[in-house]
């Protein structure tokens, strides 16, 4: 059988915009809603109310935050909600000089994992640190949540603006 | 609160909402481009010929489906054909009842080995039969856009 190499045609946006090629467009509706689930749904409602909440495991006794309906260590159902403080301890952090889409920053963003007071050891949430000199941040630093005004809160993790050092 | 649970207050349903940009462009391709431009500009159909398999493709193909040879011989083919099969459509894509049923048919184009699906018009549904001779009705030249819908429909001849 004779072999053939078919000519390729490279198309650029301009070829479409200037009508140089015939084409159909398809713009499907891809709106979606992603259910937060029982535990995170309640957690987000707590954030809207300015309150951090955790969930208790009857087997190992740990208090979990973010809350979940089962304990990943014991594989059993968690049994009740526990209100927590909005203060905690920095257990790890990073000074980030690039944004997620790789734009260089003069002043670093400081993502950190904060062990929340009232939750078990190592139970923390990831958030940003603010109102702080980047050079002064250290593991073990005591921090507290800075909340958005109640009327601006939407039931999202961003209802907390950032964590700042406890004065 | 999960969507599996009964929601008593609208604010209890917590979900993230988003959109994914998914705009697609589907080109007619090299052979399709030539085919649709001929319809748009001259109201004619084109085909390609495979001499070794003795086949006439319309809509035209760039290669032969039988022997994979590159097809370089282009030919004008008739805008008439026969109804190979048909169906009467009463519902739209969303399942809503159409004001008038529409007839869709596969039309085998005369003097070719090909054809395509299109609407039948200017005909009562009960008059249609397999084997019925039909002809293409084109839109006015100014209304054509280089699409299969530049053919308004096929009608009995």
Task: Give a structural overview.
The complex is a heterodimer of chains A (about 170) and B (about 160). With about 170 residues, chain A is mainly β. Chain A has helices spanning about 15, 35-50, and strands at about 25, 30-35, 50-55, 65, 80-85, 85-95, 95-100, 105-115, 125-130, 140-145, 160-165. Chain A is extended and about 65 Å long. Chain A starts with 12 loop residues before the first helix and ends with a strand. Chain B is mainly beta. Chain B has one domain (about 25-155): Beta Barrel (OB fold (Dihydrolipoamide Acetyltransferase, E2P)). Helices cover about 10% and strands about 40% of the residues of chain B. A five-stranded antiparallel sheet of chain B has the order 8-7-6-9-10, with no helix packed on it. In chain B, β7 (about 95-110) and β8 form a beta hairpin. Chain B is globular and about 65 Å long.
Oligomer: heterodimer
Tally of domains of chain A: 1
Relative strand content of chain B: 35-45%
Q: So what's the overall shape of chain B?
A: globular
* Rg of Cα set of chain A: 24 Å
Rounded to an integer in angstroms, the radius of gyration calculated over CA atoms of chain B is 22 Å
Please give a handful of descriptors for the protein shown:
heterodimer, A: 167 residues, mainly beta, three-stranded antiparallel beta sheet, 2 helices, extended, B: mainly beta, five-stranded antiparallel beta sheet, 1 helix, 10 strands, 41% strand, globular
């Amino acid at each position: 059988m004779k072999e053939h190499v078919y000519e390729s045609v490279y198309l650029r946006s301009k070829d479409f915009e200037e009508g140089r090629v015939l084409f159909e467009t398809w713009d499907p509706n891809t709106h979606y809603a992603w259910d937060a689930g029982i535990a995170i749904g309640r957690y987000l409602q707590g954030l809207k109310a300015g309150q951090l909440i955790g969930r208790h495991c009857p087997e190992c006794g740990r208090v979990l935050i973010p809350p979940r309906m089962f304990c990943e260590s014991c594989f059993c159902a968690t049994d009740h909600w526990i209100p927590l403080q909005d203060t905690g301890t920095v257990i790890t952090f990073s000074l980030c000089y690039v944004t997620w889409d790789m734009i260089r920053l003069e002043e670093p963003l400081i993502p950190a994992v904060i062990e929340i007071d009232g939750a078990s050891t190592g139970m923390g949430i990831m958030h940003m640190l603010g109102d702080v000199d980047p050079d002064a941040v250290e593991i073990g630093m005591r921090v507290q949540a800075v909340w958005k005004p109640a009327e601006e809160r939407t039931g999202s993790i961003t209802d907390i603006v950032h964590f700042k050092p406890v004065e | 609160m999960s969507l599996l649970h009964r929601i008593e207050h609208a604010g209890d349903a917590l979900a993230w909402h988003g959109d994914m940009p998914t705009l697609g462009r589907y080109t007619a391709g090299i052979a399709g481009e030539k085919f649709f431009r001929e319809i748009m500009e001259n109201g004619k159909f084109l085909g390609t010929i495979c001499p070794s398999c003795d086949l006439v493709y319309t809509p035209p193909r760039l290669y032969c489906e039988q022997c994979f040879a590159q097809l370089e011989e282009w030919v004008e083919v008739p805008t008439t054909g026969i109804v190979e099969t048909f169906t009467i459509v009463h519902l739209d894509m969303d399942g809503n009842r159409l004001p008038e049923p529409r007839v869709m048919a596969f039309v085998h184009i005369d003097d070719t080995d090909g054809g395509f699906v299109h609407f039948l018009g200017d005909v009562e549904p009960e008059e249609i039969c397999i084997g019925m001779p039909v002809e293409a009705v084109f839109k006015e030249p100014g209304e054509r856009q280089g699409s299969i819908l530049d053919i308004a429909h096929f009608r009995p001849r």
